[in-house]
Amino acid sequence: MLSTYYKIWVDAIVLEKGKKGEQGNWKAFTLIPMSLLQGVNLLTLIFVIRMFTHQQVPVVLSFDIFRERVFNTFFAGALTFFIPFVILNYLLVFYNQRYKYLMKTYTGSNGKLYRNYFFITVGVIVVPLVLKLIF
């Protein structure tokens, strides 16, 4: 399972390096979308747990740091669904230039794995929500 994770990462790195070049900021353009997709996966998992257990599992942490509720919700969402994955992905892929070793070990597939991961991740949460709205 971890090898599939790294294969998707290598595919994303190869795709972004091809677009941005070696000197571009391809690391950020790889790290941010992958972390967002993993946050969407976590959100999907929480929704599935809520659906099957009929329990009110909190979706995001609750904060009262700012006066505006929108800022509190955004901060809680970022802290729950984005920042942990940025840290985890940085440590697993980019720390000490580990991506170079990963690129030697795994081959990219011209963005196919990365694109499929995107569509599956978004589809798994969007399709049920659309069906719920329709029916």
Shape: globular
Mean pLDDT: 88
**What is the element string, with H for helices and E for strands?**
HHHHHH
Q: Could you give the distance between the termini?
A: 35 Å
Strand content: under 5%
Number of separate strands = 0
- Poorly predicted sequence stretches spanning 5 or more consecutive residues: none
Rg from Cα: 17 Å
Structural class, judged by helices and strands? mainly alpha
Q: Regarding quaternary structure, how should these chains be classified?
A: single chain
Main sheet, how many strands, which sense, barrel? none
Query: Roughly how much helix do the residues carry, as a percent range?
Result: over 70%
Number of DSSP helices? 6
Tally of domains: 1
